């Protein structure tokens, strides 16, 4: 296992050092350390109850850690609200995507940050510019939308995820946190989302990919933080761990072996044996 502060990808953009969070007597996270670098994907893996949601909320400014440090560009930071994290360039795309299904793609793309033209009482929403920028930014991510006026609810799950990713990158995200973006998708749509994660990475964004699926994480990941019941099961560079090892660590090696033995059906005996 490598030192999470070291690596070939240059200095850490975002770093966690022994981060812990309690809710009353419940230890939600304890001693969590990892790094996120520009142009790399850090995958955070764990089963339900592993602490992934708490970690997201600390990075997104919803919760403050009770122990440890969060560093941005090598400097300790403490966010008192999600707006602080967003202003610092940390954008979070949650599973619900914060989109309005009946509104057009371009309206969702600029929701809350609409471009305008004119001044004072003559200021108007610049819809032509919004449509042009939406189409251009989506194309830059490899997304060729049919019509920016179509309701975002008519897009597939993978396409909606791609719009959310492109929106975050356009508005200056240096760190992009993706909360289980492939969990509700089929194989083909999940593959589409993984391709757009790679596009964001290749544009120099530091990506935090939260997932419980090692087969989705391993193709795009550069670093893997494994969580179990709020504690780190390991922080690995890509060459140090396989899909099978990640699966074994997440499931618990002994428990998985015992379950496999229990579920395997014995081969039928041939007559006369």
TrEMBL record:
<feature type="domain" description="ABC transporter">
    <location>
        <begin position="14"/>
        <end position="254"/>
    </location>
</feature>
<keyword id="KW-0547">Nucleotide-binding</keyword>
<dbReference type="InterPro" id="IPR003593">
    <property type="entry name" value="AAA+_ATPase"/>
</dbReference>
<dbReference type="GO" id="GO:0016887">
    <property type="term" value="F:ATP hydrolysis activity"/>
</dbReference>
<dbReference type="GO" id="GO:0005524">
    <property type="term" value="F:ATP binding"/>
</dbReference>
<dbReference type="InterPro" id="IPR050107">
    <property type="entry name" value="ABC_carbohydrate_import_ATPase"/>
</dbReference>
<dbReference type="Pfam" id="PF00005">
    <property type="entry name" value="ABC_tran"/>
</dbReference>
<dbReference type="InterPro" id="IPR003439">
    <property type="entry name" value="ABC_transporter-like_ATP-bd"/>
</dbReference>
<protein>
    <submittedName>
        <fullName>Monosaccharide ABC transporter ATP-binding protein, CUT2 family</fullName>
    </submittedName>
</protein>
<dbReference type="InterPro" id="IPR027417">
    <property type="entry name" value="P-loop_NTPase"/>
</dbReference>
<keyword id="KW-0067">ATP-binding</keyword>
